[in-house]
Amino acid sequence: MVKVKDIAALLNATAYGNTELDVVRPSEPVNARRDDLALAMTPSYGEALGISAARVAIIWPGADWRAMGLDAAIEVPRARLAMARLTQAFDTGPRESGIHPSAVIDATAKIGDGVSIGPFSVIGADAKVGDGCWIGSHVSIATGAQIGAGGLIHAGVRIGSRVRIGDHVILQPNVVIGADGFSFVTEEPANEERALRTMGREPLAPPRDAKRHRIHSLGGVVIGKHVEVGAGSTLDAGTIRATRIGDGTKIDNLVQIGHNVIIGDDCVLCAQAAVAGSAILGDRVVMGGKSGIKDNISVGADVVLGGAAIVLTSVGDGVFMMGYPAVPMPAFRAQQKALRQKAVSNSGHND
To answer: Looking at the whole model, is its pTM more than 0.85?
Structure first.
């Protein structure tokens, strides 16, 4: 149980009423019990809070907490920031500790102090696992891979050789880091090369030799500190130089990062985003869901890509892009307006 005044201090927020009251857990207002902390940080929760059993709530600025029958309230100006701090405080994290007897750890691996390793996990030769790491079940860490201190590696993660991971990194289930990049070449220009060169002006035909020769990935992956990678995402190894992910970058579920990609600090890549090989992203780039970036181009710092935006040419700093092919948002809105006007005009002619 936690006192209201202590939660307010944690959130750097203002508390009202009986701040000595204890609460057990956070809850949505409609499900909250008497000793729960109801989360009503926007006015849309006001009606539910008014009939909730909770005595204590986190409320939006200016909410009349007394009129809603509360004994105490905590007022927060920025709901999602408060949610971040609150959930961190109430999350107990993994409960298992120690090294499970079924784990297979090579004698040359270096395991730091306070490391937990779950059932059926495998740590390869000369691998390094930093102090305080928690490694779930069925994780494989290949020969020579390095993981910094305080990592949280969930079940089924695969970490290849030539991978270096910084401190306090979180990898959600089934992440794959350091698989070979998708890179092949033919003896003569393949159809995709000819298509790009001629821009479709010439017909394509079977090449004399269509065999694909594999380009192996020797560069590995380097991941900075405080990076998070969502479930099922893949980060391919570089061909000669490493694929790099900057400090503080957050990657959602089912994201694909191609070989040789460089991603800056504090970027956000939402679900099903994809970055093709050798692309470069500056710091604080945000990629909306299902957005994509073409290979061998650069995207400047502080760029935001809306959902499903596909970037085909390099972009400077600080641009909000949308559409396919992606264009700055004012141009995209003008395009959409013109299309709507044309549709209305055509509809009138059909009548």
So the answer is: yes
